[in-house]
Amino acid sequence: MPKRFRLTRRITLGMTEDGYRNLRKFAQEAGLDEGEALSFVFEHWNSVTDTEALTHRLRLFNAELDQRKR
Predict the structure, then answer these.
(1) Distance between CA atoms of 70 and 22, rounded to whole angstroms?
(2) Cα-only R_g, the chain
(3) Contacts (Cβ under 8 Å, ≥6 apart) of 59
(4) Distance between CA 14 and CA 46 in Å, rounded?
(5) How many CA atoms does the CB half-sphere of 40 hold within 13 Å?
(6) Distance from chain centroid for Cα 57
(7) How far apart are CA 6 and CA 8, in angstroms?
(8) Interval 8-18: pLDDT, tens
(9) CA 38, CA 45: separation in Å to the nearest integer?
(10) pLDDT at 70 over 90
(11) What is the DSSP secondary-structure string of the chain?
(12) Mind listing the pLDDT tens digit for each residue in 38-68?
C-alpha cells in the first residue's frame, strides 16, 4: 500500500531566479506543484543525482557564491 502524501513541513526558502525557474519548469513538466516537486527530489535524492557531477557543481557554485551575493 502506498504511503499517503502529506506535506507536513512548511519552510521559508531563499532561491535564485534561475533555480526557481528550473523548479517551476520541472514541476510543470511532471504535473506537480513546486512543493510536491521539491518533496520528490529530496525523497529520491540518491536516484536523481550523479554524485560525481554534484560534487563538481557544488565546488563551482561555492567558488562563485561570494561574487553572486554582491
Answers:
(1) 22
(2) 15
(3) none
(4) 23
(5) 12
(6) 14
(7) 6
(8) 788 888 999 99
(9) 10
(10) no
(11) -PPP------------HHHHHHHHHHHHHHT--HHHHHHHHHHTHHHH--HHHHHHHHHHHHHHHHHHH-
(12) 999 999 999 999 989 999 999 999 999 888 8
| C-alpha cell recorded at residue 56 | 563538481
The cell for 46 is 540518491
Distance of CA 69 to the CA centre of its chain: 19
Give pTM, 2 decimals. Answer: 0.76
Check pLDDT > 80 for residue 3.
no
